[in-house]
Specification:
Layout: H1 13-18, H2 25-89, H3 92-120, H4 127-141
């Protein structure tokens, strides 16, 4: 992920502090609690970063759909002008206005398709966070010695 921070694995601070001494059960439980707390904070930070990236993708798709709306508005405007000119002058100006309206119809269609494709690419779930949580749960069930 571009711009993402890389989190270091939790380091066993106990071994450095005790220099080979046996730690009590209370110390071990306290250390596990601190490690779990650190792990949860890191997972929440990762989830926030993923949600921010997905929101940016959604914004781009919504902007393209906004452009399609504007192009559609121009289609109605030029289509209306073509109808007015067609009734007023019967051929010359009306055909020119219809060509312009046809161009705007193509532009509106392309923008709508591109915007829809962008919005379909948005994943509302934080995928990487879910994967690391699964790995954490697997590790918690079968810790390595």
């Amino acid at each position: 992920m571009a711009g993402s921070q890389v989190y270091e694995p939790i380091i066993d601070r106990r071994s450095a502090a005790h220099n080979g001494d046996q730690a009590s059960v209370g110390e071990l439980v306290g250390e596990v609690g601190r490690d779990l707390s650190l792990l949860m904070r890191q997972e929440m930070t990762l989830a926030r970063m993923e949600m921010k990236e997905e929101a940016a993708k959604a914004g781009k798709g919504a902007g393209m759909l906004g452009g399609a709306g504007y192009a559609g508005h121009l289609l109605v405007l030029f289509g209306s002008l073509a109808g007015v000119f067609g009734l007023a002058h019967l051929m010359d100006i009306a055909w020119a206005a219809l060509v312009v309206a046809g161009v705007w119809a193509v532009i509106a269609g392309v923008l709508a398709l591109l915007g829809r494709r962008k919005l379909n690419a948005v994943h509302p779930k934080p995928q990487h966070t879910m994967e690391t949580l699964k790995e954490d749960a697997k590790w918690a069930r079968h810790p390595r010695s």
